[in-house]
């Protein structure tokens, strides 16, 4: 398989701290690969390495079958990063900036730019400093798509967009992706959006890969058993490799189980006295994400905002 983006044992140290550790990810052509993870997990750093803005400290990063690094200027014509923290020239108008981009990018498509700016209603004569945050993100995306990249890297693309624009933005992105065959890597905390658009998913935690693979396969990897008639996991299942987690529920207990072990675990629960077991597949991504994070030891206790005596 010729991967479009290929990271092998990638490590990145920033300020003496390892922010990516031994990350291996492969992205096939024309697919959408989602990157999720807790705050500070290393998503932005990873995309910056893919975009050639950072060099990896160790390991290999190949994009479009070439080594990506900060000196790979020709390759960067074919790979675009859309991110809110990349500054825009505040003094230029939308039209001026688009003209500048058209000169900068060899594959610029004026017809595509016209369609996108009309669809997104971008105000051509407005200076960039007067664009709202959401409009700036839309402008970034429109410019990136107009440059006809082969790889599009999106870092939190829908933050700050209202729900109507967010929907339109995603729709447009999916249509453009289908029409152009661009390969997309998107980092986001919006798991519902990732679930709708992505083919593959990588979850990072503290710079390491927790899970990576086809989204469908990852979603099918766990099932939920809702068990009546038991209040705790039977001893026979303690330490069972097929049991992911369990917790008491209103009517009994909930057990998250690896799909391949569901039959064995169900049989053991029945032997231990379970009265009724309901099996659910297709667990929503946000729930899976929470389970993966908890498994890594990621827990945030609720912070008491009101101090004693204030309420
Ligand atoms: N230039 C830098 N120098 C030192 N540390 C950095 C630098 N940039 C990022 N970091 C640290 O690297 C880690 C990963 O940051 P990164 O921005 O890649 O995470 P992220 O997953 O995108 O986070 P978030 O979801 O909060 O945006 C964080 O602990 C961050 O503080």
TrEMBL record:
- What are the protein's GO molecular function terms? ATP binding; ATP hydrolysis activity
Its keywords, alphabetically, are: ATP-binding, Nucleotide-binding
Determine the domain of life of the protein's source. Bacteria
- Ranges where the ABC transporter domain occurs: 5-231
Q: What is the recorded name of this protein?
A: ABC transporter ATP-binding protein
Q: What does the organism's lineage look like at the top?
A: Bacteria, Bacillati, Bacillota, Bacilli, Bacillales
């Amino acid at each position: 398989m010729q991967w479009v983006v290929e990271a092998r044992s990638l490590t990145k140290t920033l300020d003496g701290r390892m922010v990516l550790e031994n990350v291996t990810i492969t992205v096939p052509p024309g697919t959408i690969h989602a990157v999720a993870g807790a705050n500070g997990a290393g998503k932005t750093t990873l995309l910056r390495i893919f975009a050639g803005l950072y060099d990896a400290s160790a390991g290999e990063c190949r994009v479009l079958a070439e080594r990506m690094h900060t000196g790979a200027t020709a390759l960067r014509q074919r790979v675009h990063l859309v991110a809110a923290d990349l500054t825009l020239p505040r003094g230029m108008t939308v039209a001026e900036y688009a003209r500048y981009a058209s000169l900068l990018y060899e594959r610029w498509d004026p017809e595509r730019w016209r369609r996108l700016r009309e669809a997104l209603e971008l105000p051509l004569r407005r200076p960039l400093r007067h664009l709202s945050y959401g409009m700036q993100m839309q402008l970034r995306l429109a410019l990136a798509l107009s440059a006809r990249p082969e790889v599009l890297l999106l870092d939190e693309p829908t933050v700050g967009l209202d729900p109507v624009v967010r929907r339109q933005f995603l729709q447009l992105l999916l249509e453009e992706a289908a029409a152009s065959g661009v390969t997309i890597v998107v980092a986001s905390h919006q798991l519902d959006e990732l679930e709708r658009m992505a083919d593959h998913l990588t979850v990072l935690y503290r710079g390491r890969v927790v899970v990576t693979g086809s989204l469908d396969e990852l979603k099918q990897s766990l099932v939920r058993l809702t068990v009546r008639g038991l209040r705790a996991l039977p001893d026979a299942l303690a330490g069972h490799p097929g049991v992911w987690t369990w917790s008491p529920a209103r009517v009994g207990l909930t057990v998250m189980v690896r799909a391949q072990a569901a039959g064995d675990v169900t049989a053991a629960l029945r032997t231990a006295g379970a009265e009724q077991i309901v099996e659910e597949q297709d667990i929503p991504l946000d729930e899976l994400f929470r389970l993966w994070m908890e498994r890594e030891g990621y827990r945030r206790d609720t912070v008491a905002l009101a101090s004693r005596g204030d309420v």
